[in-house]
Structures are given as structure tokens and as C-alpha cells.
Write a structure and sequence with these properties.
Number of helices: 3
Structural class: alpha+beta
Strand content: 25-35%
Order of helices and strands: EHHEEHE
Largest sheet: 4 strands, antiparallel
Distance between the termini: 30 Å
Number of strands: 4
Length: 104
């Protein structure tokens, strides 16, 4: 008889202040492993609105975070994309950006 272990995935969403030190450490480590985040991530993670973590049993395999980026970063993104800020930029949901990282 052939048996295959079926992964048990779970999704956890929390404010950074509700995360354990281990969860925050795992989150930062996985995102940094992607190689696309500048220095200072641990401090920025603390400012995020929400952290979402995807677990396969006990192993963290995916992350995403809803963040409020600094004004300088927002301006840089708008300049790089040669777009103008809309009437709602800087207000409410229109000021939210997603940062994601996935383990492959």
C-alpha cells in the first residue's frame, strides 16, 4: 500500500505586536531569503498593519504583510513609474501597499 503524507497548511494573520519573537524572526528570515529587501527589515516589520504567515505543519513557507510605506519610498515609486499621485493617495486604503515573500 502506498501512503503519502498530505501537508496541513494553516494561515495565521496577526498584528506584529501580537506575534511571538520566534514568529517575527522566522518572518524576517524568510523574506530576507528572497534577496529583494533592503536592510532594516526587522524594524519595518514592527510598523506593518498585519503580518500573514502560511505554515506547512510547523514550517513557515510563505509570508505577506500589509504595510504603510514611508513617504520617501512612495515618492520614489511614483517617480520610477512616472505616474502622478491620485487624489486619494496618502489616505485610507489607497495608502496601503503589500509586501510579499514566498519560500520556493
Amino acid at each position: 500500500m502506498f501512503r503519502r503524507k498530505v501537508p496541513m497548511y494553516s494561515i495565521v494573520a496577526k498584528k506584529p505586536s501580537d506575534c511571538s519573537a520566534r514568529e517575527l524572526e522566522q518572518f524576517v528570515k524568510l523574506v530576507m531569503a528572497g534577496g529583494e529587501v533592503a536592510n532594516g527589515l526587522p524594524a519595518r516589520v514592527q510598523k506593518e498593519v498585519s503580518l500573514v504567515m502560511l505554515f506547512n505543519d510547523e514550517e513557515l513557507v510563505g509570508t505577506t504583510g500589509l504595510k504603510r510605506p514611508e513617504t520617501d519610498y512612495q515618492n520614489k515609486v511614483f517617480r520610477r513609474n512616472q505616474t502622478k499621485r491620485g487624489a486619494n493617495s496618502g489616505q485610507g486604503l489607497f495608502n496601503q501597499h503589500f509586501a510579499t515573500g514566498f519560500k520556493v
